[in-house]
Amino acid sequence: MKYRLIYILLTLASVITYGQVNLSLDADKTEYGGKDVVNLTIVLELNGTDLVQQTGFQLPDLSKFNIIGSGSVTNTVIDPATNTLITQKVSRIALEPKKKGKIKIGSVLVTVNNKIYKTEPFDVNIRDIVDKRSLAGNTSNEVFLNMEIEDRDVYQDQPTIAVLKVYSRNMDNLRKVKNIRLPQQENINVHPINFTKSEIDPSGNGNMSSQILAMFMVFPNKAGYVEVPGVSASVSTYSNKNKIVSNKIKLNVRKLPEGAPDGFKNAVGNFSVSVHNTTKEKPEAKKPLNVVVKVTGEGNLPDMELPKIVASPDYEVFAPKITSKVSPGASGMKGTIMANYVVIPNKSGAISIKTEPFAFFDPENKEYVDLGQKTLDVNALSHDQVMESRSTVEKVNEYTNNLLETVNTPVLKTTSFKVKEKNKFHWNILLTNITILLGLFVVYLIFKTWQKKRALVNETISQKPLGSVAETEKEIRELLKTDINDYFGYLENLKDNGEYEKFFTTLEELDQEVRNQYFQGSVAEFKTFLEKHKGSSVAEEYARLQQKIQMEKYSPVKSQEGIEELLKTIVNLYSQISK
């Protein structure tokens, strides 16, 4: 009986362990045309910290296809409900069928904790095969989008930055990607940072070139697991237009802490609130006032609920007009949003115009900040009090304005008389013209003398013996050589002063100067030159540096430490190249 109980427990343990590993292999559809690409998606999900993947994905026999592309991504999140670590590995394979008919896709194998898991085989049907030459204009199968998000563990309504990249074997295809559409979904708010394309990196994944297309902020507005849908774009050619879609990314959105103040709604970041009267005239009962509620700060500013003016029997308030000036910041959208209200006092005397209580959650300090209510005290005057409070000058100005508006006054016209001077001969003008002509003649004689001397110098130089091509090239290179230490000192000053835009502009000038020393026009040509003359390690380090420069240049958040590390790499590499 004792051994039977142990056997039952071991069986249940094996069933539980089996349930913690999920492996699947799916195709995007079951039937394909001749121009279609078969996209296979392999998903391995490990629930728990004690599971170890011992082997990679062992693919089935794909000899009936041409593998035209592949990629993989790993996501790791923690389930807040069960506090379980979930690791998800997704691989995609793009296949081109070699023949038509029904083709069987076999099982994918993987070993986890000394146990082999496999997927179920399935069939795909290929209707026909089209000659590859007819597919020459179809570039969508050679272009791939990839969305990257580093920080996938955020609070509700806290932003995370996404970077969209495009990959292709043919560098020319990258220029054909247009009409980028950012993801739209109810549980996320998306705000673009920029759509500035970076320089093309010829050394991407494998033999594929890459380029950054866009950067944007994602604000998840619900807690739990939130899946960010793929970004779509079009690949335009002269003959057709094809649509491509990037990968999806799952975020772990943490719920905001308990104990929120009464004035908290959905503001996450760091904000301040003010209220003021913009009407220049004295407040008067039954006359409108322009009251502005201003919210300034950084966070989910465009999507949060603004504090409203509380209704009161002392005044009448109308729906506001919202104006905003917002731009991407380091930890969200920063700027100012103003709600312009029209408020009409119902009585004369002291009136307090109050806003709703306002509070926000600060994700940096992980605490709520309660700003309470903001109050604008107004002393509304009656019409008689306004008339009595006017000064003598104001009364005179008002009387004059009323007079000019109601009484028609004649317009007096004056004429100015001018006495015409008699025409006479000016000797000063004649002498000035003669002096100018003599000066031009003297300059001409000096120029002819200089030209003769230069011809003699050129003749003397031409008599010197010519060296070899290598010696001539070396002399020219010495003439073109720039003291890059001056650039290093200037870049150091720009880094210390925080002038990052001028820093990257100067860095481009430095790179151009160094390439000019070796008569190389583009970055790709210079990389090939370095491989031949400086070694493959220097060339690879140069390519990685260019990619790192582009990432830092277009990053919305530039840290002092990151720029300093980048400058050290620049000094070491360019000093080695320019020896």
TrEMBL record:
InterPro entries: BatD (IPR025738). Pfam families: BatD. It comes from the Bacteria. Keywords: Membrane, Transmembrane, Transmembrane helix. The keyword Transmembrane helix applies. The chain crosses the membrane at residues 425-447. This is Oxygen tolerance. It comes from Chryseobacterium pennae. The lineage of its organism: Bacteria, Pseudomonadati, Bacteroidota, Flavobacteriia, Flavobacteriales.
